[in-house]
């Protein structure tokens, strides 16, 4: 993310070996067998000469999808030490394996930027193997992954863990989970940042905005109805005053406000905002949005508002950069440095 926003390869040079060794460590952990799962088919199936279970991270202790607003019953008489021992024994294979894939993909992309072609190919192949195994063993033919947990479906879609055949069913399961939960989220620290982008990218902008504007708990706006000016550690933080009352994790929705509502997005081809995209996504009850980002070239501004049944878009592009303006009616144009304005009929751009 730092490289994408600043275009400086040095951060990748500095941390490449750390990142590579971390992925290698996870792969070693995955190769350790967990007796709890050894009866399952992944421990008896080989693909291209490699055991499928070797690409599933089902050992070690993990917190997993921390702070999901889901009540998990604890057996009577179980203390904290016993609960942690159970976490070590069971692992969190669906979460840990997903992040092993994401980390391997990150290393492959870092290697590409740094010109390390052998590593790019190696870790890209590893990420592909993990995706294949994940899709085979964790995603049902009907798209089911973990009933009652939106996070499982968000994670699979955001990290491209599902095959083309299963992706429509995974999307369907996510929508059903949201509907069953009264159009409220139930994601934790890990998947909350991806929830709204995943919904928009799968064509459900209406759902993304409905969740964004939800005021019932759990939601981003519920604490605000109680007078909160910070973001709590848990979704019910300002109801029961539990945990930290100033915790950024759920504030990751801010990225959605900038890159989807405002539409300001960097691009890999020209990192550091030398070139960028402005693609605002309208929806919900919003009739106005203004986002500005202080890039290393200067301030980028994206603003839109409803005026007399029209939507007026204003974009400011810094000197020595250029932007690809993508408007909701499907039109696109490149804009050099300076300010520009576009108008479209409101009914053609608003997604209810």
Structural notes for this entry:
The chain is α+β, with helices and mostly antiparallel strands and 352 residues long. Helix content is 41%, strand content 15%. The strands form three sheets. A four-stranded mixed beta sheet has the order 3-4-8-9. Strands 5-6-7-10 form a four-stranded antiparallel beta sheet. A two-stranded antiparallel ribbon has the order 1-2. Strand 3 and strand 4 (275-278) form a beta hairpin. Helix 2 packs antiparallel against helix 4, helix 4 (93-114) runs antiparallel to helix 5 (117-138) and helix 6 (150-158) packs antiparallel against helix 7. The radius of gyration is 22 Å and the shape is globular. The mean pLDDT is 95.
List keywords for this structure.
352 residues, single chain, 4-stranded mixed sheet, 13 helices, 10 strands, alpha+beta, 41% helix, globular
Helix content: 40-55%
Please give the largest β-sheet.
4 strands, mixed
Low-confidence spans: none
Q: Helix/strand-derived class?
A: alpha+beta
- How far apart lie the N and C ends? 31 Å
Order of helices and strands: HHEEHHHHHHHHHHEEEEEEEEH
Number of strands: 10
Strand content: 15-25%
The order of strands across the largest sheet is 3-4-8-9
Q: What would you report as the Rg, rounded to the nearest angstrom?
A: 22 Å
The oligomeric state of the chains shown is single chain
Brief rundown of the structure:
The protein has helices at 2-6, 10-31, 80-90, 93-114, 117-138, 150-158, 167-180, 192-201, 205-212, 222-225, 237-240, 253-261, 346-349, and strands at 46-47, 50-51, 264-266, 275-278, 288-295, 298-307, 310-317, 322-326, 332-335, 338-345. The protein is of the alpha+beta class and 352 residues long.
């Amino acid at each position: 993310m730092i490289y994408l926003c600043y275009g400086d390869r040095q951060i990748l040079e500095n941390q490449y070996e750390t990142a590579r060794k971390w992925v290698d460590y996870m792969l070693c952990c995955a190769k350790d067998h967990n007796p709890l799962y050894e009866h399952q088919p992944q421990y008896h199936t080989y693909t291209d000469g490699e055991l499928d279970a070797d690409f599933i991270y089902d050992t070690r202790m993990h917190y997993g999808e921390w702070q999901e607003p889901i009540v998990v019953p604890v057996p009577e008489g179980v203390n904290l030490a016993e609960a942690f021992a159970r976490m070590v024994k069971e692992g969190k294979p669906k979460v840990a394996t997903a992040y092993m894939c994401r980390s391997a993909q990150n290393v492959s992309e870092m290697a590409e930027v740094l010109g390390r072609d052998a590593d790019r190919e190696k870790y890209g192949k590893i990420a592909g193997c993990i995706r294949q195994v994940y899709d085979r063993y964790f995603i049902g033919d009907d798209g089911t992954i973990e009933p009652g947990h939106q996070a499982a479906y968000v994670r699979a879609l955001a990290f491209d863990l599902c095959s083309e055949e299963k992706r429509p069913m995974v999307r369907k399961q996510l929508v059903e989970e949201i509907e069953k939960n009264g159009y409220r989220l139930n994601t934790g620290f890990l998947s909350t940042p991806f929830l709204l982008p995943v919904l928009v990218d799968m064509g459900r902008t209406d759902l993304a905005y409905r969740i964004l504007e939800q005021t019932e708990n759990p939601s981003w706006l519920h604490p605000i109805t109680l007078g909160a000016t910070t973001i709590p550690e848990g979704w019910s933080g300002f109801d029961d005053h539990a945990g930290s009352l100033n915790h950024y994790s759920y504030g990751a929705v801010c990225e959605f406000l900038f890159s989807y509502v405002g539409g300001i997005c960097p691009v890999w081809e020209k990192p550091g905002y030398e070139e960028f995209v402005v693609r605002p996504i309208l929806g919900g009850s919003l009739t106005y949005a203004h986002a500005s980002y202080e890039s290393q070239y200067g301030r980028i501004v994206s603003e839109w508002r409803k005026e007399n049944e029209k939507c007026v878009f204003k974009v400011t592009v810094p000197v020595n950069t250029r932007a690809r303006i993508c408007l909701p009616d499907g039109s696109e144009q490149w804009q050099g440095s300076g300010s520009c304005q576009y108008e479209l009929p409101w009914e053609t751009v608003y997604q209810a």
